[in-house]
Amino acid sequence: MKVGGQAVIEGVLMIAKRVSLAVRKTSGEIVVKDLGSVRFPKWARVPFLRGFYSLFISLYFGIKALNLSSEISSGEEMKSSEKFFSLILAIGLAVGLFVVAPIFLTNFLIKKEDEFLYSIVEGFIRLGLFLLYVWIISLFKDVKRVFQYHGAEHMTIHAYEHGEELTVENVRKYSTVHPRCGTNFVMIFLIVAIVLLSVFGALIELSVWTRIISRLILLPFAAGISYEFLKLAAFFEGKGWIKVLYFPGYLLQYLTTAKPDDSQIETAIVALKQAVSEKEDNTDHQVKEEGLELLG
Predict the structure, then answer these.
(1) Is residue 23 a contact partner of residue 35, using CB atoms and an 8 Å limit?
(2) What does the domain layout of the chain look like in residue ranges?
(3) Vertex 161, ends 16 and 281: CA angle to 5°?
(4) CB distance 58 to 226 below 8 Å
(5) For 253-285, b where at least 16 C-beta lie within 10 A, e where not — what string?
(6) Rounded to an integer, what distance in angstroms lies between the CA atom of residue 226 and that of residue 184?
(7) Gap between the Cα atoms of 269 and 191, Å rounded
């Protein structure tokens, strides 16, 4: 069974048979929340469409888990208005930084008449801004802890996929990088977007605002294509020439993941055990750090 996951604030989200969130409180206890299960309708299994649906599911549960983890770790409940404005701010930042800014920066470098070259330069500027953004946030202490939980998530999934008993000792043997990581998807997506938008730019001449709109429309198509490349790479397990698809994402994962401590690995184990469980558990419960083995 394939398992997915995300690092959140002081915790890990795991997606398998169940969607499970485990967050460690400052008291040392792990709060576990069962967020339900994922259903894939028939249309969402169609190649290219499934990538867009998977991205939607990841974003939906990711945002939900991020808000919950923030509340659990801080002990303060967020107001609905705060959650709404945080979401709007995040969307606005993403569109402004990775869609609008590359277009305006490219205007200073390339003549608009050469749409093909314009789109290529714009794509590389977008890639550069993304890498710069990741590097800058990696310098913050709180983000570094999230990256440690990201590493714990990958290591735990590795152990599970290799049939290991989920203990800290077994998990610690594995790498913090994983071929199905969303970081790999993002890197493939950025490269595919450069090619797709360059071809589109060579066919149609656009103004600044129609160019922004076209990027927003074409990005979901780029996401669908990128997901198929990621599936292809996973099928061949990164062997032979297919390593080319993994290589950029692997390099970036060394920045977006970090070696976790034992408590972070324990949190990831708790989340994964709940996620692969057949049993639905709608009650929130807490696990003391020293009582982890009772979960098995």
Answers:
(1) no
(2) 4-295
(3) 30
(4) no
(5) beebbbebeebbbbbbbbbbbbbbeeeeeeeee
(6) 10
(7) 33
Structural contact between residues 229 and 188, judged by C-beta atoms closer than 8 angstroms: yes
Model confidence at 280: pLDDT above 60: no
Total residues belonging to the chain: 296
Are 192 and 226 contacting, i.e. CB atoms less than 8 angstroms apart? Answer: yes
What global pTM score does this model have? 0.84
For the chain, the helix, strand and coil percentages under 3-state DSSP, each to the nearest 5: 65, 10, 25
Chain centroid to CA 53: 14
Rounded to an integer, what distance in angstroms lies between the CA atom of residue 69 and that of residue 26?
12
| DSSP secondary structure code for residue 278 in this structure | S
Please answer whether residues 219 and 94 qualify as being in contact, where contact means their C-beta atoms are separated by less than 8 angstroms: no
Range of lowest pLDDT (117-131, 189-203, 251-265): 189-203
The fraction of the chain above a pLDDT of 70, given in percent, is: 87
* 119 vs 156, more confident: 156
Cα–Cα–Cα angle for 77, 154, 187, nearest 5°? 95
Q: Dihedral of the CA atoms 71, 75, 76, 82 (nearest 10)?
A: -20
CB contact burial 69-88 (16+ within 10 A = b; e otherwise)? bbbbbeeeeeeeeebeeeee
- Are the C-beta atoms of 121 and 106 separated by less than 8 Å? yes
Alpha-carbon gap, residue 27 to 29, rounded angstroms: 6
CB 121 within 8 A of CB 228: no
Question: What's phi and psi for 24, nearest 5 deg?
Answer: -95, 125
Tokens 């996951």 label which residue?
A: 5
Distance (Å, whole) CA 144 – CA 123: 28
